[in-house]
Each structure stands twice: as C-alpha cells, then as structure tokens.
C-alpha cells in the first residue's frame, strides 16, 4: 500500500509539472481549457461510463431483451408500425413434427422462449403486453447505466427518479405522471420520456399500489359508456410511455 501511494504521488507531481510547464493559451481559447480542466477533475466512473450500446459490458442477452421490449413501444410512442417477421425459407419445406405444445416448448432455449414472449401481440392501444421492465441484481452490476444507454439508443429522453426518496404516495404519483404524460422541453429536438425508477424495492407498499393503478388504467372513452368516464379522467390517462424499474432485492 505504501508503494502504491508513493507511485501515485510521483505520478501526480509529474502531471502537475507538465501542466505548469505548458505555455499559457490566449484569452480567446479559454473555453476548451475549461473543458479539459473539468474532464481532468471528473470522476473516472463518469469519465469512462458507457455512452453507446456497443460500449456496454453487461450481459448481452439482457441488453438485447431490454432493447427489444423498449422497441415494442415504437408503435404508440413514435407511430411506427411493427415490422412483420419474415418466415424462414426452410420452415415450409420441413414442417415440424406433430408434438404437443408443452413438449415443443420443453426443447426451446431460454432465448427463444423470451423472444416469443416479447413478440406477443400488442394490446388494443398498441402497447406491449408487459408495461414495466424490472432490472434486478447486486449494486455495481450496471443496471442504471444499462437503462440510460438503452433509453438513449431507442430515441428516448431518460428521466430518473428514486423511489426511496419520495415516501409519500401522492408525490410518487405526481412524479410518475409528470414523467410519463408530459413532453420533454429540452430544446427543438424534444424526445419522449422513458421513466427509470431506481431503488423500487425501497418504496413503501402504498407507492407500489399507485404504480400498479397507473399501469392498469383503462381507456377513459371506453369506460364512459359504463358511467365511469368522469372518475377515470380525474385519475389520469392511459400509460403511454415505458417504465424501467431497478432493484437490488427481487
């Protein structure tokens, strides 16, 4: 440990001597110097955090599943129609054996089963069957980084909130509705929001019930015929934006 500290001190002195030996830049070029100085003093965890999908070091299967689920929202969020899957040319030439469905599923891999679940038909509002994704694992695994990179890759503006901070169900509900129903106002190229709820395992039961009520809301127009429209409109509209929840303890 003493050797490491001494080497670290020597390296710091060398870096400082090199920076002081450099000639001062003219006044007109102060901004790049400020950027370099801020980059020099930023934490390594921020400096080297993955910015693109290809830089992710987490499990590739998990990355692809989350991205595939997020792309299912394209129809309702971006107005893109779901691309029809092309049939394999050898499928008709070699029909499958007449086996019961349970036996067919028995020999499918985990990847095939998950892809079939994710490729299920969209509901009547063109939303995916599962409205919320849950990422779980020990701290430092890269769950929050994965959620932010995937949301950015799919064309969303990632909005993060911590479920442990807002202990009141009313505040929790307000923040969820603000993130999922209001548009982003970040300049001209505004993007739809993707809500990332961190530490969902630390939220009280009342807040979880609020989240479930928002997920299971039905169409106000369809309920109006049964006399429930006014209450539904007061509660809020349908959930039309994806939500990614993160926890340590599943």
UniProtKB/TrEMBL annotation:
Coiled coil (UniProt feature): none
Primary location class: nucleus
Domain of life (superkingdom): Eukaryota
Gene Ontology terms for molecular function: ATP binding; ATP hydrolysis activity; DNA binding
Entry-linked Gene3D superfamilies: P-loop containing nucleotide triphosphate hydrolases
Biased composition, class Polar residues, residue ranges: 12-22
GO terms, biological process: DNA replication
UniProt-annotated stretches for the region Disordered: 12-37, 86-106
Gene Ontology cellular component annotations, sorted alphabetically: nucleus
PANTHER family: P-LOOP CONTAINING NUCLEOSIDE TRIPHOSPHATE HYDROLASES SUPERFAMILY PROTEIN (PTHR46765:SF1)
Family: Belongs to the activator 1 small subunits family. CTF18 subfamily.
Protein name: CTF18 protein
Record organism: Himantopus himantopus (Black-winged stilt)
Gene name of the encoded protein: Chtf18
